[in-house]
Amino acid sequence: MPAVYSQYNILPLVQIYGTTQGRDLGAVAADVQNVIDAKAKDLPKGVQAVLLGQVRTMNSAFSGLLFGLLGAIVLIYLLIVVNFQSWATHLSSSLLCPPLWPASCGRCLPRTPRYRCRR
């Protein structure tokens, strides 16, 4: 695998390209990061090894999705609190919901050819 010499933010850069070849990007990125972390102590002073490219974009997208999901959960919680007009009522109803989740997944539907029990 040939290395390409270039610059990144005016600093000299050696780029090593690789493909995932039958594996997902997250698993390959984790393996490469483990190799980078293991070899980090052997690097000369002033030299650093970092992952760039699609891995950085993927991590940025996942952190944005996580932030959006947590924000949506908080917003829904606050809307339900306003609807119940009480923090305690919403908390008690939230604690009662997990036993009802199998029923909401369709397990209580009648066993007919049209409605099969989902497992």
Helix residue percentage: 40-55%
Strand order of the largest sheet: 1-2
Instruction: Characterize the main sheet.
Output: 2 strands, antiparallel
Radius of gyration: 25 Å
Q: Look at the helices and sheets and give the structural class.
A: mainly alpha
Provide the descriptors you would attach to this structure in a database record.
119 residues, mainly alpha, 2 domains, two-stranded antiparallel ribbon, 3 helices, 10% strand
Verbal overview:
The protein is 54% helix and 10% strand. The protein has a two-stranded antiparallel sheet with strand order 1-2. By secondary structure, the chain is mainly α. A hairpin with a 2-residue loop joins strand 1 and strand 2 (11-16). The chain has two domains: 1-52, no CATH class; 86-119, no CATH class. It has three helices and two strands, in the order E-E-H-H-H. The mean pLDDT is 79.
Quick description:
The chain has three helices and two strands, in the order ββααα.
Topology:
Elements: E1 3-8, E2 11-16, H1 25-39, H2 54-84, H3 87-104
Antiparallel strand pairs: 1-2
